[in-house]
Q: What sequence folds into this?
């Protein structure tokens, strides 16, 4: 049993003795509540029901209403409150799209505030804007274009924001019925390296533990992850973890203020005096995580701090790892990590002293060229002490979007079928027999490859559900050029985005979508901890002619392949869940989810429980890893892109409420600034051969030689050719800094 949180107040964990942290920089969560009430004032009963009955469409923590399965009490964060407006706002007047020139100067945040997209719209080359059409006209245009080309010249992309399992499943089935595997979703850009790393070493492709394991474990480690910003409800978990005696540490390039202390609004003690979270920060240089972790393991080997019994009986490859580490000098590891061996020793000692530990990581680990090996380096460390498959232990790639986990598992992926099965002739044949039509046998194009193909004139149709390639992929000018060359672009969403306004090569069609709360029959979401949760339909306003995406894709596939019409139809979402349970074994149980509160956690509370690993030899595998060699030319900096007061690329405020930094901030070390004669607030340009980003110096506790700029603004500095093995763009760069007049 894990220790329980102390029932009494614990002043040693307080962030400040000043009531309510007066004068400190942190989010005003109470203001967010009043703001949400004001913005949804015309739909308050509907807004309340969304919060109280629906499954959150924000991050992937997973709730039923405002409750979860980790802690008692209400859970509500400012990200969900910001998204509430999009679920309750009215439609915009379609006439504003008749001439889009005034809209083309606006940012995505301004376009969102216009309201919901109400009707199908079409714009053809030479038109000033869009005109309203019927659903039949829209689907006829799209189906005719698809039939007129070949499957390899089609591309489909689905974002993860609010997208549900049923939408993913129906969409990928429809696309494959049309003969293509060119379908991808945002899960790849976030955590496909995590899935690959976990599968290759443990045989399990998802988070191995539960959120409950955070509270009372000996050591909770966050690597390249800022949950206070991206999964705000977790600060409540961290507060109680501290009260249960858990030691929290962070490995990052920046001493994130929200991971250091936070005022949790729903806990009286923390709301008054705040909570100190991280007991130590281990600052590394960009891309230095693997070198730091390799050094940590070297210390553990040298001091015999391993669980020798576990390593001997339940793992393979340790001797190969040991040999690889012996060839890596301390000087090399210090240089590549950006920190000293004494800091590696301090962390190793923490790991050695822990009987139980949980490792949490996010896109600071995965979004690198070596993302898969970054993940494996974390797994290597966890395996030295058997920190997997038991209570209070685990490996957790935490998800930032409510739809990400299910997206890949439903098979909405260019490189795998439903259930994560690789695209092979054998698996395609099996799926063809179950579905009753021929399934394509070769892997499709992933999102960056779709854009490359479009740039070369090899894509005839792009159907994008949500998403905004202009703001999520590197080199936005290149992306825009590619979009302008696609004869038919279809954008289905609940609001406008700047991607929709890119000039058409021939035709652009806009389709209005429903939110998850408007889908008849209710839907399901899969959380970070593998919990499949039912979200009921919420009675209330409905927007124009908006339809669920899954219905649109099924109808489109029937028009393209009328001979398969009887195999491409679901009477409702419940019938779809019946099929999902048959096609995807780990989702058996989804067919029984029917009302609010219904849920199950596939695989149980812990994957690999009892150290049973689903690998060919039944053992967990260490991986010998050599840290990437990164040379920093004189006068250059490592540049990481960061999120602040935003939900993925959806910027919600100019100022990050946790750091106090504005969007134009260039976070840098004070000593680096002094060497360049720069002061806080000075105007600068971050530049490399790809682009220039104007900004202002923001002095911060960041590792020397490193800068951070906000994403997606910083995409102009990123190299589109740098991707991980799973196709994840490297959202980091090397650039120089110059002072502006």
A:
């Amino acid at each position: 049993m894990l220790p329980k949180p102390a029932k009494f107040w614990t002043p040693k964990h307080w962030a400040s003795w000043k009531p309510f942290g007066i004068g400190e920089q942190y989010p005003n969560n109470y203001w967010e509540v009043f703001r949400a009430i004001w913005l949804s004032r015309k739909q308050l009963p509907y807004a309340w029901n969304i919060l109280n009955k629906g499954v959150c469409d924000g991050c992937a923590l997973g709730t039923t209403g405002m409750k979860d399965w980790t802690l008692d009490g209400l859970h509500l964060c400012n990200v969900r409150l910001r998204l509430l407006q999009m679920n309750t706002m009215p439609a915009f007047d379609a006439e504003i799209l008749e001439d889009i020139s005034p809209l083309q100067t606006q940012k995505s945040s301004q376009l969102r505030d216009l309201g919901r997209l109400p009707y199908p719209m079409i714009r053809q080359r030479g038109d000033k804007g869009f005109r309203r059409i019927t659903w039949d006209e829209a689907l006829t245009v799209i189906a005719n274009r698809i039939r007129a080309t070949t499957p390899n010249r089609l591309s489909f992309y689905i974002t993860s924001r609010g997208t549900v399992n049923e939408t993913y499943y129906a969409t990928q089935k429809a696309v494959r019925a049309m003969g293509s595997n060119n379908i991808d979703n945002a899960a790849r850009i976030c955590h496909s390296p995590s899935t690959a790393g976990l599968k290759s070493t443990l045989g399990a492709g998802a988070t191995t533990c539960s959120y409950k394991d955070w509270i009372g474990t000996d050591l909770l480690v966050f690597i390249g992850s800022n949950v206070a910003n991206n999964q705000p409800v977790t600060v409540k978990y961290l507060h109680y973890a501290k009260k249960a005696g858990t030691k929290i540490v962070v490995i990052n390039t920046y001493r994130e203020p929200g991971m250091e202390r936070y005022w949790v609004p729903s806990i009286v003690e923390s709301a008054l005096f705040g909570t100190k979270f991280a007991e130590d920060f281990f600052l590394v240089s960009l891309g230095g995580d693997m070198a730091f972790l390799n050094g940590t393991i070297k210390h553990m080997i040298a001091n015999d701090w391993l669980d020798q019994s576990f390593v001997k009986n339940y793992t393979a490859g340790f001797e190969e790892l040991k040999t690889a580490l012996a060839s890596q000098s301390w000087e090399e590891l210090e240089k590549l990590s950006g920190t000293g061996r004494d800091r590696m020793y301090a962390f190793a000692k923490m790991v050695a002293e822990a009987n139980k530990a949980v490792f949490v990581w996010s896109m600071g680990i995965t979004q690198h060229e070596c993302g898969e090996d970054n993940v494996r380096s974390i797994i290597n460390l966890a395996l030295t002490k058997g920190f997997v498959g038991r209570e209070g232990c685990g490996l957790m790639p935490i998800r930032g979007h409510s739809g990400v986990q299910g997206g890949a598992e439903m098979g909405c992926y260019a490189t795998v079928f439903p259930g994560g099965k690789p695209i092979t002739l054998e698996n395609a044949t099996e799926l063809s027999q179950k579905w009753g039509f021929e399934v394509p046998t070769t892997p499709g194009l992933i999102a960056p490859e779709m854009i490359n193909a479009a740039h070369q004139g090899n894509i005839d149709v792009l159907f994008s559900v949500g998403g905004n390639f202009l703001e999520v992929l590197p080199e936005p000018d290149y992306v825009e050029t590619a979009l302008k060359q696609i004869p038919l672009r279809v954008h289905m969403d609940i609001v406008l985005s700047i991607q929709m306004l890119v000039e058409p090569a021939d035709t652009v069609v806009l389709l209005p979508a429903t939110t998850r709360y408007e889908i008849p029959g209710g839907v399901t979401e899969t959380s970070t901890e593998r919990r499949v949760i039912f979200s009921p339909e919420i009675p209330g306003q409905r927007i124009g002619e908006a339809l669920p995406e899954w219905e649109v894709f099924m109808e489109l596939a029937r028009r393209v392949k009328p001979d398969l019409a009887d195999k491409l139809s679901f009477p409702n979402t419940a019938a779809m869940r019946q099929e999902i349970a048959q096609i995807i074994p780990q989702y058996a149980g989804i067919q029984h989810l029917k009302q609010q509160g219904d849920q199950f956690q596939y695989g149980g509370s812990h994957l690999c429980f009892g150290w049973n690993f689903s690998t060919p030899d039944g053992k967990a595998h260490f991986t010998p890893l050599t840290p990437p060699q990164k040379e920093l030319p004189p006068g250059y900096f490592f540049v990481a892109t960061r999120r602040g007061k935003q939900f993925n690329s959806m910027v919600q405020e100019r100022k990050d409420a946790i750091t106090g930094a504005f969007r134009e901030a260039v976070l840098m070390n004070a000593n680096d600034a002094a060497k360049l004669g720069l002061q806080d607030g000075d105007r600068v340009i971050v530049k490399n051969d790809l682009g220039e980003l104007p900004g202002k110096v923001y002095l911060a506790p960041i590792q020397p030689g490193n800068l951070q700029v906000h994403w997606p603004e910083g995409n102009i500095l990123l190299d589109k050719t740098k991707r991980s093995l799973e196709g994840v763009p490297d959202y980091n760069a090397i650039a120089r800094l110059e002072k502006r007049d």
